[in-house]
Amino acid sequence: MLEAQGGGNCGNALTAAARLGLAPAIVTKIGGDGVGDGILAEFKGDGVDTQYVLRAAGAPSPFTYIIVDRQGGTRTCIHTPGEPMQPEELIPELAAAVLDGAALVYFDGRLTEAAVVLAAAARERGVPVLVEAERLRPGLEQLLGMADYVVSSAHFPQSWTGEQCLGDALLATLSRLPRARWLITTLGSRGSVLLERPSGSSNGAAAAAAAEPAVLDDLAEQLFSEAASSSSSEEQGGPACVSASGIEIGASRQASSSGARSLRLRRGEAETQGVLQAAQVAAASAAAANADASNAAGYAMQNEAGGSSAGAAAEVVASVTVSQAAQLPAEAVVDTTGAGDAFIGSILYGLATGMPVRRAMQLAAVVAACKCTALGARPGLPRRANLRADLLGA
């Protein structure tokens, strides 16, 4: 079966947000070809504003072949890039028009040179910035440094920091994001983890810092066990979502730490050198995978002193929330392509509407699960009518 659909991390996320009720606008560059015409038509059909999309006359639009193995549950992607947006194309007038009245601005980690220009303009205007950290990319560290909120893939923190233990990698990542209020890391079929900094210099934060530090992996496992054994009030009101094909999806279960905790690394100082080397290997692998092997240094994240970012703070104070994946029958999963984008689109909706981040994570889990009930990144994305009203904050 062959089907042509719109895609791309940002495009998918904005489509998810639009179907939930937002009016997002996309800033990007595509070719002046028929594929580009189709991209614009699909966005407009879903309510995504395309007035800030630049067209490159005579150039092809980006295109990706995604081969889905339903039996093996795997995906193979073959990407043909288009002509990238250049920083000088984001002229001040364009940035001002884009940010006028914006509740927030989201970057998917691509086209980082141009993205940094728009992120800087957003900071000047006081518009919050959300950055997706899917994989190592040149220039991504500078963009992450401007982020108020970060959503990462499961493997990014370990690739960035070189930490072998996921909990240590999450702590090391948050310690490298001084502006970020919170970090959400998606864990595929297991769910997601939120690390949220306490607001201001509260007494609660001081008390947490003075208490016995916890190892994040141990705490997260405890919370996942609590979530699995819980019965949330949302489950009493029927299915959280009914997909277009009639599949019922149950709510995500959550568990949280009792306020902010002092979280420490599992590894010891003696293992720092191995962490540094692992981060360098990950950067070299990312560069090679992008046919950019000579630019491995551009993929390695650097700290203020110019060294590897693997030298993380020994302790981080944050509250921890785990959210299980939404309840979806295994046989109902058709394709996981774009599930992470659906998750981020829901987080965008939550931020734009003032929803508490933990509630937004529950919505995101349900939207991501619904997306998986159809082939491709967008056909399975639910609309407001598919979702139970309380999930939308209604």
Automatic annotation (TrEMBL):
One of its GO terms (molecular function) is kinase activity. Keywords: Kinase, Transferase. Residues 6-200, 316-382 form the Carbohydrate kinase PfkB domain. InterPro entries: Ketohexokinase-related (IPR052562), PfkB_dom (IPR011611), Ribokinase-like (IPR029056). This is PfkB family carbohydrate kinase. It comes from Chlorella sorokiniana (Freshwater green alga).
